[in-house]
Amino acid sequence: MIKQILNRADSFVDQNKRFVGALAFLYATSLATRSLKKVLGFLAGQFIPGYNLTQRYGKGSYAAISACTDGIGKGFALELARRGFNLVMMIRNAKKGEVLAEEIRKTINKDIDIRIVEIDFQNIQNPGVIEAIVDQLKGLDISILVNNVGKLLHGSFEIQNFTEINNLISMNCGAQALLTRGLISQLLQRKQKSAIINLSSLSCNQPMVGYAMYGASKSFNDYFSRSLSEEYKGRLDILSVRPGWVTTPMTDGINEKFFEITAEQCASNVLRQLGRTNLTFGHYKHQITAYFSELVIDILNNDSRKKLQNSNKSQ
Ligand SMILES: NC(=O)c1ccc[n+]([C@@H]2O[C@H](COP(=O)([O-])OP(=O)(O)OC[C@H]3O[C@@H](n4cnc5c(N)ncnc54)[C@H](OP(=O)(O)O)[C@@H]3O)[C@@H](O)[C@H]2O)c1
Q1: Domain coordinates of the chain in residue numbers?
Q2: What is the pLDDT of residue 125?
Q3: Residues with CB under 6 A from ligand 1
Q4: Quick one: signal sequence residues (predicted)?
Q5: CATH code for residues 53-313
């Protein structure tokens, strides 16, 4: 049977040499173009200098960041303060926010204006909560919204409880959609450009064992972000950020962290690309991780599946 198929294929190629040659040439060209695009995209992301952000978005304007007393959010707060923006911290612990605000005034800019909006993002979908936040921010010249807050759930899906799942949906999807909806009119009405940075994750590159809820929510972040970037092209700079491992409280207990970077490295590499693209892995290490993860994902998934099954049995 196989021999017959191969013989037929041979005679087809013999009779249609020019056509088969043309097809092979087209295929090779499209592969080469795709690879070249990837390489050029990588080089552009890493070597083209970023915009002067206060020039682009407005001197004296505010960057509003969710969950920025620690982790990647704090990285963005420090980097945006360094670039001359005032800050709105949307955080759950006002005291911790005051300490960070003091640190920023002492080390970065003594004249910076920092507003604190208290919010536990687990409650963002409760009636009246988003309206109260939007009310507090009315009239403030917000030029950059960083939708950073997020929660990690890892392990067997069957042992994750309803509260954990609901909280993840609120923090990873609800917060991003509602804050964007709440502030988008303000951002669109400004004379200068405005920007939205949405934290997704490299974990949504491929389906990963043990990360079903997290990966799915990060795919939501990525699609939401890139869809809006198409809808508001030319009017808003909207950037989906898909970092790999970053040293933060979220990743504290995880041992194997390949190509890990600091929160400030993450933020500064993202800000360099703001306004130039609608999707970034941020740091070049994470762009490389993204490429290699595609090649080894099946091995990783097989290994994680065995580990999860064994840990379920031993419980
Ligand atoms: N870390 C990574 O390797 C990584 C990689 C890819 C993508 N990401 C994404 O990047 C974003 C930030 O990640 P991260 O690692 O910085 O997270 P994180 O370490 O959990 O962030 C800590 C910050 O989140 C605040 N926070 C936690 N729960 C909150 C709640 N219910 N309401 C309000 N604030 C809350 C903390 O406040 P307190 O200071 O009060 O505790 C702190 O400011 C997430 O969307 C995540 O999915 C992270």
Answers
A1: 53-313
A2: 97
A3: 67-73, 91-93, 96, 120-122, 148-150, 171, 199, 201, 243, 245-246, 248-251
A4: none
A5: 3.40.50.720
